[in-house]
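Exercise: predict the fold of this chain.
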Amino acid sequence: MHFLLSRPNSVLRLRFNHFATECSWDHLYVYDGDSIYAPLLAAFSGLIVPERESNETVPEVTATSGYALLHFFSDAAYNLTGFNITYHFNICPQNCSGRGECRPVNGSQAVECECWEHWKGEACDIPNCPEDCGFSERGQCSVNGTQGCVCYPGWQGVDCSVPVPANRSFWTREEFYIPKLPRASHKAVVQGNLMWVIGGYMFNHTDSQMVLAYNLESREWMSLGSSVNTVGIRYGHSIALHENKIYMYGGKIDETGNVTTELWVFHISNHSWVPLSPKAKEQYAVVGHSAHIVTLQDGAAVMLVLFGHCPLYGYISNVQEYNLGERRPVVTFTLV
């Protein structure tokens, strides 16, 4: 079953008010275009929380091409209540969450939220000063409310609720609106003050990048050259960091859909990829696995590739071992 929504040169927003289908068997796919070859925006299956007007957790899907193709597949074996979707053209995300005004941008059809005081974000859904920063004991809201909480000495966190030093883990949220960033099933490692993000399923195929680097000190995404894109984009792979190099194994190649046994090394010093060609009697193409560097008793560094899903054998309990120093063939063994 297909549904095509269109209004050229417009931004289309779909809100899933209700969704209840058979999990893993009934699927709804949403594409940003007029065919299944357009970029995939979302895939839904199973249950979404019941509809109610104030529910801000209901997902909203945005198509920027002026078209949205909805493809629904069902095996018709088990029926639930289905789905209820509303759509609008050229409106602000989440209707500004009821905390702002939707304004046109430079007189064009594009619109954006102008948030009320003490709120921020694309949909005005993020408080600048949550819990009022614990005023007057732990901190206070900045003068104009746009900079968030200013914590008093001895306190930290978005709401100044965590002591210094911290007695628990806590999250902070960084906001970026960069087309190259959205992705799923990617991998990341930290080297020094840089976080390297490798691969992933890209939702924006026309402006994607295989490797991203984030400076943890300056809190900025770095600009990288085209050399980082010489390897085909993949997702569900594994990466492991060793001696200024990132080793990448397996995963599903985005262009072909094939699961691979390719082993690549990314040289951080010059941002270049080099293929490695280990030979083995048994080498498994896997996706959804993990990899870790360990040092053996003789001092040799090896990469262990743990488990994963193999197209030929399904989920496997095999561990694949690759000697990084001597580049010896892959050795596999099974955990019982």
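Check your answer against the key: The chain has a mean pLDDT of 88.
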